[in-house]
Fold this protein.
Amino acid sequence: MDDKPSPGAVSESSEHLFSFGVIADIQYANLEDGYNYQGTRRRYYRHSLLHLQGAIEHWNRESSPPCCVLQLGDIIDGYNAQYKASEKSLELVMNVFKRLKVPVHHTWGNHEFYNFSRDYLTNSKLNTKFLEDQIEHHPETVPTGSFYAYHFVPFPKFRFILLDSYDLSVLGVDQSSPKYQQCLKMLKEHNPNMELNSPQGLSEPQFVQFNGGFSQEQLNWLNEVLTFSDTNQEKVVIVSPLPHLWPCCLDESKADVTGTSVRDTTDSHLPIYPEASDSVCLAWNYRDALAVIWSHECVVCFFAGHTHDGGYSEDPFGVHHINVEGVIETAPDSQAFGTIYVYPDKMMLKGSGRVTDRIMNYRKEKPFPLLV
């Protein structure tokens, strides 16, 4: 989509229901500017905090403030671990988020796991699972595994789902644990390279150490939530740190890994749809996640970060896959965040700076049967 629509382009007959904010890949560190692994893209480690402050000031000024903000992962950079500055940098960024007048939902990307263990994150302020909604008389929609995922309802008949795209991962896990051994075995079966962050020669280049995947337990839970949303005619937004999409960055290869109806929206750090992201930055088992999503009618869009360049595609089933441009590679004279305005028939992404505007219409046909 080349045109840059604005909320003002919506017809007067359209009723604005609510809005929400998105921001990705802040990757703050108290460091001078640097570059990605290839030396082709500049990274503004300190200035990323000023971009976050600008985004929060914008959302706080809105006459109709967003209902919430989705932080799509990589809140601080992995370099913090090398300089033993992880906790200090996280505290600094979280203090900026305190200025936001609406709730923020955090997802966990690879840089979270470069800095902290999963156990640490579970007990940190980056765990926003306390904001989840529970569906009465439907215990199957309550996540019971060790994965970090939940759902909530920001507006009647709209459900947001946060996924854990590092549920299967060698990052942030005790190396003596059975889960680490299981994930390492899975990774090495698909990636024979000595350097597991390298996709060189791989037929499935997403199988690198800086990515991760979804356990079957989490996918079963997602299927139950989407089944409920189908039955109750909800619209769903899914959020994940990793895309199911197609363009993403290779720069993590240098990282030091030490440490009214209802619509569903899904959010994740990793993308899952190849046409919207780089094949290297997809979730390991993105096909499994897509199979679950495509077996339901309720999903409107899937938001992810991780790629820094951004990306977009509408898949054959009418699900919009959006990779939000990363703050870390945004010049001081620009910006990188978006506000999504929700209407009965569409969602409109109004980007700031290098985040592209999008119109995401809800699908009108039923191309496949409901999964029961």
Notes: The mean pLDDT is 87.
